[in-house]
Amino acid sequence: MVRQIKKTEMEKQFKPREYARIRSKQLDLAKKGLVLESARYAIEAARIRDNKRMYA
């Protein structure tokens, strides 16, 4: 039962489409040389990715 709860929490926290969208935006900004904006998106993508690792 505990395992199912953790999996459900993980699914709520990690959204692959949202992660891919944010990462794509971050890479586009990096290519344009917009470092600070790119860093903000990189931090957000890392937060989403780390939430997945925490529940895995």
Q: Could you explain the architecture of this structure?
A:
By secondary structure, the protein is mainly α. It has one domain (about 1-55). It is built from three helices and no strands. Helix 1 (about 1-15) runs antiparallel to helix 3 (about 35-55) and helix 2 (about 15-30) packs antiparallel against helix 3. The longest helix has 21 residues, at about 35-55. The radius of gyration is 14 Å and the shape is elongated. The two termini are about 15 Å apart. The model has no long low-confidence stretch (mean pLDDT about 75).
> How many structural units, i.e. domains?
1
End-to-end separation:
15 Å
Report the radius of gyration as a whole number of Å.
14 Å
Helix content, binned percent: over 70%
Strand content: under 5%
Shape: elongated
Structural class: mainly alpha
Order of helices and strands: HHH
Quick description:
Helix content is 89%, strand content 0%. With 56 residues, it is mainly α.
Task: Label this structure with key terms.
elongated, 0% strand, 56 residues, mainly alpha
Helices and strands in order:
Elements: H1 2-13, H2 16-32, H3 35-55
Helix pairs in contact: 1-3, 2-3
